[in-house]
Design goal:
mainly alpha; Hypothetical protein af1432; 12 helices; 63% helix
Length: 220
């Protein structure tokens, strides 16, 4: 096995360990991270972006790794977060960047650090436009798409039509216009199939389908 192949195998195993650690603390975050990776890959394949696909995959999978330093009572809180708790949550990109220092993934640290920046400069660190790393802008779009299309304890997943509408509305202020357009260059059927397949979403989807079927039967 070549040195490059050994490196890829080692990085793959380390990524599995990291995502398993994330999942041990928060099942949703583990599934979400993989979903962001899938969506980011779709964006990269549809666009003409000069970016290392392997590094982007690593950054997408690890973009929320800083959440392992967020207290569980804040990370998994059912109700609304206080200002203090939001301040803790907002530290997770910086925490993630710090966790990667001195590892084989430290060169993607800035991509993770800035994945919550906004095009209009109103993000976590105030970067705007092209000052935000391209990989961070791609992850931001994939992250937003995943958040909208993911089932949560307090709401069902957004429809693909609502998701597309919200992404278009956020383009140019929160999200990069070109990256949004690249993702939306896929047709609705493809985007709808680009869903999160974590166990939480599968269970919630089954529950929603059963509920809809039960309501349909009762109306007959």
């Amino acid at each position: 096995m070549s040195e490059a192949a050994v490196y890829r195998q080692q990085s793959s195993e380390i990524l599995k360990i990291c995502t398993n650690i994330i999942g041990a603390r928060d099942e949703y975050t583990q599934g979400h991270s993989h979903h962001v990776y899938v969506v980011a890959e779709a964006i990269l394949q549809a666009g003409s972006y000069f970016i290392d696909s392997e590094k982007l995959a690593h950054a997408a999978l690890l973009h929320d790794i800083g959440k392992i330093l967020v207290p569980e009572n804040v990370l998994n809180k059912d109700g609304s977060l206080s200002d203090e708790e939001w301040a803790i949550i907002r530290q997770h990109p910086a925490n993630g960047c710090s966790l990667l220092q001195g590892t084989m993934f430290e060169d993607i640290g800035d991509w993770i650090l800035y994945h919550h920046e906004r095009i209009d400069g109103k993000g976590y660190h105030g970067l705007s436009g092209d000052d935000i790393p391209l990989a961070s802008r791609i992850i931001a779009v994939a992250d937003t798409f995943s958040a909208l299309r993911t089932y949560r304890a307090y709401r069902p997943a957004k429809s693909i039509q609502d998701t597309i509408r919200i992404l278009k509305e956020a383009a140019g202020t929160q999200l990069d216009v070109n990256v949004v357009q690249t993702l939306l260059s896929y047709d609705e059927d493809f985007l709808e199939a680009l869903e999160c397949n974590c166990e939480i979403c599968k269970r919630r989807k089954e529950m929603e389908q059963k509920k809809a079927l039960f309501e349909k039967i009762n109306l007959q």
